[in-house]
Design brief:
By secondary structure, the protein is an alpha+beta fold. A hairpin with a 2-residue loop joins strand 21 and strand 22. Helix 12 packs antiparallel against helix 14. The structure holds 2-acetamido-2-deoxy-beta-D-glucopyranose (7 copies). One 2-acetamido-2-deoxy-beta-D-glucopyranose (NAG) is lined by residues 81-82, 259. One of its GO terms (cellular component) is membrane. It is found in: Membrane.
Amino acid sequence: MNMITPLQRQLVHVILIILFLITGTEQEQASFQRKIISFPEFDKERDEVYFEFSGKNTTIESRALQLTTDTTNDGSLPDHYNNSGRIMYYQPFRIHNGRIMGSFNSTFLINLFRESDWEAGHGLAFLISPNFTLPESSYGHWLGLTNSFSDASRDNHFVAIEFDTQNPGQNHIGLNINSVKSDKIVSLNDHNITLSLPSNQSVSYKVWVQYNGTSHLLQVFMDKQGEPKPTTPLLTQTINLKDFLKQESYFGFSASTGYPKIQLNCVLEWTLEIEVLPKKRDWKWLTITAGVAIPTAIVLLVLSLVFYVYKRRRRVEEPDHEYGNLRYLPGMPREFKYKELKKATNNFDQSMKLGEGGFGIVYKGTLQENCEIAVKKFSRDNIKSKGDFMAELAIIHRLRHKHLVRLVGWCYEEGKLLLVYDFMPNGSLEKHLYGVSEHSTLTWNHRYRILTGVASALYYLQNEYDQKVVHRDLKASNILVDADFNARLGDFGLARTIENERNSYAELGASGVPGTIGYVAPECFHTGKATPESDVYGFGAVVLEVVCGRNPGMRIPDEQHFYTLVDWVWMLHREGRIEDAVDERLENNFVVEEAKKVLLLGLACSHPLATERPKTEEILQIISGTLPAPYVPPFRPVFTWPSTDPATIVIDSLLAGITSPSQGYSSEKSSLSISQMPSAPSPSFNLPVSGIMRP
Ligand SMILES: *[C@@H]1O[C@H](CO)[C@@H](O)[C@H](O)[C@H]1NC(C)=O
Ligand SMILES: *[C@@H]1O[C@H](CO)[C@@H](O)[C@H](O)[C@H]1NC(C)=O
Ligand SMILES: *[C@@H]1O[C@H](CO)[C@@H](O)[C@H](O)[C@H]1NC(C)=O
Ligand SMILES: *[C@@H]1O[C@H](CO)[C@@H](O)[C@H](O)[C@H]1NC(C)=O
Ligand SMILES: *[C@@H]1O[C@H](CO)[C@@H](O)[C@H](O)[C@H]1NC(C)=O
Ligand SMILES: *[C@@H]1O[C@H](CO)[C@@H](O)[C@H](O)[C@H]1NC(C)=O
Ligand SMILES: *[C@@H]1O[C@H](CO)[C@@H](O)[C@H](O)[C@H]1NC(C)=O
């Protein structure tokens, strides 16, 4: 009689949970997790959700965080007076646990603008605080940090670096702990820095605040925008921040104006690299959990007994109910009716077709609510197991990032599988790179912005989510572009359940799926497996493609040689003229230093040895400018197999498995040859570069 099995299973679960809680508590993880949040600019619509704004006129405007009133209209002068504001990153970080403290680097660009006839005041501060609430009456010299009641209170638990402009003679930075009165002041007058210059000489300053949680060394570096990080810090202080800060603290900025002293207080860029501790797990929680878990377990035991008996009775009537309950779990995407999607796509009409890939066709659809969707209809429906499929769907649905296309829902009926995505009206990067349209070539700024977005999406997939997620199919046709030229990575995952393991990269290579050649890392032809490193390789191919405007699968003739795109760029690098690789349709309208940097990055990602490719974190730092371009040897290294480093083939992704050719909105255009490309001149938009990391 195996009726005891569910009982035993429940018991084992309870014991395991308790053991896990106890051991987890005892050895309070001393392991930090590194996070990077990078805003190379701020976009109101896109980035508002990542900040908490408090203050009368705090907002994102003109691609910057505006802590106080941001207009220079004379009519708005009264709005400027006696103002203060805070803009904090929306999530707190657990930076210490009472014993150990994480390190962080906060790098930002500030501009304290004033009209020539304004008297500057009062200042801006980089702030670490227990909450994002702006204290009342914190205008004037309180800098949005404190007020006359709370100043210097030990309960404030904040640390700030102030950039004080209220008195031109003082022009200084300071380290503030719980008070606007600085613990340490460094005058900027000896460093040729004037924080608030009149409008015709306005300068933005880059600031590097670095803190080492082990050595307790706090350093602040500062220089004019565009200058490299100075070698010597302006301010140095050994201080154990954990004595002052709450374990969970918010990071951000505050600023104030006074009367009549006013200025615009803006932050134009911000990158925060921070070591955080995992969420707190303590005895109190254990007690509560155990208090809940044990009675729950008992109830579950009884229920499972009842259910078991019930099921035995009903088994004949209800055969396949196994995965039905998954549908109702929270966090599952919406399930659509086949009929509904059929109607939305006009019975899958040819005219609604957006693109076609190896696995199926993508149609445009319109739901009743006038909501536009992209429906992917799989042509082969040999799903291995519906349970696997549902489990992966739940994971993919939980991935949320502004540079990923959102999965809206799914449908599995009568052996037909359909996935529903947000519709992206502007089409794919491929279309923008090669599309024949009256619109001219993508500008350099657009290209850089697109690459930044793709890099941050890739970083998210590999580092920010609980499980590493491997995309497996990074390529221009899978990158969609929105109206503001923000990249969105098209769909990922799922392929494992849709095709079986045999359909690997190796098979792909042989059949030469158009548009995929050139994106696949060399080791994949041997392992047939996608890894985070092979995604980086794919990213490298996208970088070269975007910068050079050439498909990575194309052969490029140059002085009687035919080169692959990688080899061609590598050859130009060797000859010291890598910038010659830049898409000639840009007609020199590009930033040479940026172009060189990303081309080198593209080459570094194309390293034949998986272990030598940069990590997504470095990629992000290189693109956002916090790390210099990587070193690239003059000759492309040789690919060896098996690699000397066994780590190359380790896969720890739940979703790692198989490539899927063209899961995105791939279109027939992928085979468009270079000679057909239009060479329209590029307009000179001057959009700043974009791209963000989020948690
Ligand atoms: C500043 O905030 C006040 C109060 O909310 C509002 O009336 C005013 O229009 C704002 N001014 C600007 C320039 O945004
Ligand atoms: C600003 O605040 C100061 C002192 O709190 C006060 O004297 C002044 O009248 C205020 N000005 C305005 C325009 O609110
Ligand atoms: C901060 O930057 C310094 C210097 O570039 C680096 O050594 C350190 O590892 C960085 N710390 C963090 C937490 O990123
Ligand atoms: C926010 O923190 C300050 C101390 O910095 C404290 O006085 C205030 O009560 C806190 N506000 C909230 C809403 O928790
Ligand atoms: C100070 O800055 C000004 C303008 O930014 C520059 O022209 C000048 O050369 C600098 N002086 C020194 C000593 O660096
Ligand atoms: C800025 O304007 C002031 C007067 O408004 C003038 O004296 C000064 O020379 C100007 N500076 C520059 C760099 O143009
Ligand atoms: C902090 O300082 C310690 C000791 O000086 C050093 O070993 C460590 O690498 C530093 N950490 C970071 C993140 O720079």
